[in-house]
Amino acid sequence: MNTHQIAIIGGGLAGLTSSIELALNGFDVVLFEKEQYPYHKVCGEYVSLESFDYLNRLGINLTQLNLPIIKRLKVSAPNGNSLAHDLPLGGFGISRFTLDNLLYQRALDVGVNVITGCKVLQVENHSLTTTHGLFNAQLVLGTWGKRSNLDVKLNRSFISSTKRSLSNYIGVKYHVVADLPDDIIELHNFKDGYCGISRIEDGKYCMCYLTTGDNLKEHHGDIRLMEKMVLYKNPYLSHYFQNFKPLYDEPLAISQISFEGKSIAQNGIIMAGDTAGLITPLCGNGMSMAMHAAHLLSQTIIKNGMDETKIITDYGKKWKATFESRLKTGKFIQSVFGHPTITNVVISMLKPFPFLVNRLIKQTHGKPF
Ligand SMILES: Cc1cc2nc3c(=O)[nH]c(=O)nc-3n(C[C@H](O)[C@H](O)[C@H](O)COP(=O)(O)OP(=O)(O)OC[C@H]3O[C@@H](n4cnc5c(N)ncnc54)[C@H](O)[C@@H]3O)c2cc1C
Hints:
By secondary structure, the chain is of the alpha/beta class. 36% of the residues lie in helices and 28% in strands.
């Protein structure tokens, strides 16, 4: 049996950043990732500047990548009624293909034992059954993202939830060639969904939308048909989908996304990132939240050593204080946008009051950490 101090399940942003931070602080870390880097992920790829300094501290030199810095927001209702606003903090654009791979390379450099192409199948009493054999660890961290085989194995409550309004979303992503400014993120609403577009590295743009599984079902599971019948009703999206050139033939899609509340620890597994709670993508800071949670968890481990009970209590308090109200505001915003008439009314009401827009954005974001 392979034994390590800390085992991390899932090498997305939360898993990779915590592995690097813990290894830099002298811990013996093994990280399991079921895919092989680099690979594409469904994500809007707009990263709030909250995490810029943290990534630099971990040894990712973002400045030399010359990434687009995004300072402005445009939001439109399904009928095209729009509002523009300067972002209080802003963000940068980078594909997950590039960002996750940079973190993976850094994790290897600092001595993390990263096992790729390896799926964790079961965890019991700190013992992990994987496709690459059995492993044992004093601490097990769960950073496997929005939904995985392990959520089913653990029988987590959001898996069996019947609240369709919170648990049945799909995400679709394209990389496109577009003629838009490089410092803007645009969010265009359509019936039961919204589509974001912003620049990433190498002059490309990421166009990514979230909608309900029911919306797709109504269009016979045909993504292109749904886009034509629903998304094209927004004049911005109609123009973008018909004129921006996709960089790969088929979009990347995921289903069964849930925004329901989750626990931060279960069966001796301590969770961070989307595994602990997912904010609606409309807020544009799930990635920074995943990294922030990973940082809070790593710092708690560095402070408390291997005392699992103390780590869960301390980290649980910090997690709640940092993210709970953001997640609530995110859910509220998600419930308002998506209804064609309500979205239009809300945008018209917000237009003359930029301080209210500022407030909403700030309530879903934190400070640099
Ligand atoms: C449509 C959409 C658009 C979004 N747009 C944005 C945006 O523009 N900005 C933003 O900040 N956030 C956005 N988000 C949110 C953001 O993508 C997530 O919050 C972020 O990826 C969370 O990181 P994570 O590390 O928790 O999980 P992930 O990045 O999902 O990583 C989890 C990893 O675990 C691996 N894994 C899963 N199960 C196992 C297993 N059993 N064994 C081994 N490995 C496993 C997976 O392969 C994956 O690599 C968006 C989300 C969606 C759905």
